[in-house]
């Protein structure tokens, strides 16, 4: 017996068996859907790539099957077989759900959005999440719509805007509490993994993020989303307090700049962009800090995540920023942003004369006092 061939054959069978375990089947009954309708499925295939499939609704029934990997959000839509070019706009008839290996049943009348989708564990978790937070999320959405309308009105009613903001705060606090409650009580859920990725990773603080990451099971962390989350967390750890940092970039004059060239000084490294409204709002505070501390062994390095040089330099000139400015004009694909996992701005960190991070995300009207507290 050829042991190598036998082993290879066994591994092929094992791989095939593993793929079979990722098979899904969706059977649906939309009793009043009528004729000339089909169901569209948008999902992640077994390689984690976007995929689509469809099935014609016959006698109110449809059937879809395929393979996927782990569990991830998918969408079922009910659409006409022939697109009516005379009709424009309108709301799509779809529903979001969690698809993984297993069998699913869709039951409804003539609407996918109102249909019941029952399936594997991740979908059960998702239904539970919606039951617990759905009403609060709907309430907050309505408040947000009113705020947007008031804020962008031609004539702003500042009293009304403040009133809506005050109304939103307790609702938002309840949502955050309920969100954390679900996350901490479902550490082995793909839904939890997505909730953390979508709500807790805009700016990862390595000092506090572990409370969300550490309880997650190996099963969910092995998924594509889990692997991306781990990679992002690892990058964030590079700019944790106590870490030494260095990078190279091109400055506004076209010369190479190296952060370590400022060794011996306290340096605030500020990530921003011309199009970032919150970033621009911080610039007057940073200017105040710069003017007060520039003669006390302090410097600022602005790392722009712009993609066009004109927009970048015009903003520097308009906001009157006299400190060091660098950018490789790659946006969030900037070498520095990719290296340190910067995916949201504004962000900054303060390094000491040895090049070690001593504080992060210092901003606000009293930023000069916050920075001065570290300078010896």
UniProtKB/TrEMBL annotation:
Residues 238-376 form the Thioredoxin domain. Residues 1-20 form the signal peptide. GO terms for cellular component: cell envelope. InterPro entries: AhpC/TSA, DUF4369, Thioredoxin-like_sf, Thioredoxin_CS, Thioredoxin_domain, Thioredoxin_ResA/DsbE_sf. One of its GO terms (molecular function) is oxidoreductase activity. It holds the Pfam family DUF4369. The keyword Cell membrane does not apply. This is AhpC/TSA family protein. It comes from Pedobacter frigoris.
């Amino acid at each position: 017996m050829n042991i190598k061939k036998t082993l290879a054959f066994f591994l092929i069978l094992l791989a095939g068996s593993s793929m079979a375990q990722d098979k899904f089947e969706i059977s649906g009954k939309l009793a009043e859907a009528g004729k000339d309708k089909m169901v569209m499925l948008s999902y992640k295939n077994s390689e984690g790539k976007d995929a689509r499939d469809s099935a014609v609704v016959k006698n109110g029934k449809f059937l879809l099957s395929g393979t996927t990997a782990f569990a991830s959000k998918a969408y079922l839509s009910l659409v006409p077989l022939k697109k009516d070019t005379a009709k424009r706009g309108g709301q799509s008839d779809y529903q979001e759900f969690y698809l993984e290996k297993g069998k699913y049943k869709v039951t409804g009348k003539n609407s996918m959005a109102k249909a019941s989708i029952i399936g594997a564990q991740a979908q059960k978790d998702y239904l539970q999440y919606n039951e617990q937070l759905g009403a609060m999320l709907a309430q907050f959405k309505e408040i947000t719509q009113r705020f947007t309308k008031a804020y962008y009105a031609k004539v702003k009613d500042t009293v009304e805007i403040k009133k809506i903001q005050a109304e939103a705060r307790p609702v938002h606090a309840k949502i955050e509490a309920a969100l954390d409650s679900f996350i901490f009580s479902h550490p082995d859920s793909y839904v939890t993994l997505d909730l953390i990725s979508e709500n807790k990773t805009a700016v990862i603080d390595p000092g506090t993020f572990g409370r969300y990451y550490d309880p997650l099971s190996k099963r969910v962390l092995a998924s594509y989303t889990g692997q991306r989350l781990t990679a992002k967390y690892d990058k964030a750890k590079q700019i944790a307090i106590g870490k030494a940092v260095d990078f190279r970039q091109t400055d506004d004059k076209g010369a190479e700049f190296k952060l370590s060239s400022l060794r011996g000084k306290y340096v605030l490294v500020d990530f921003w962009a011309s199009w970032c409204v919150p970033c621009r709002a911080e610039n007057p505070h940073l200017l105040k800090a710069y003017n007060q501390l520039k003669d006390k062994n302090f410097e600022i390095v602005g790392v722009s995540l712009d993609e066009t040089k004109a927009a970048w330099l015009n903003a520097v000139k308009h906001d009157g920023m006299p400190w060091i400015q660098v950018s490789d004009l790659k946006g969030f694909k900037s070498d520095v942003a990719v290296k340190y996992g910067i995916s949201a701005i504004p962000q900054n960190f303060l390094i000491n004369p040895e090049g070690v991070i001593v504080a992060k995300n210092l901003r606000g009207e009293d930023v000069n006092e916050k920075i001065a507290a570290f300078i010896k």
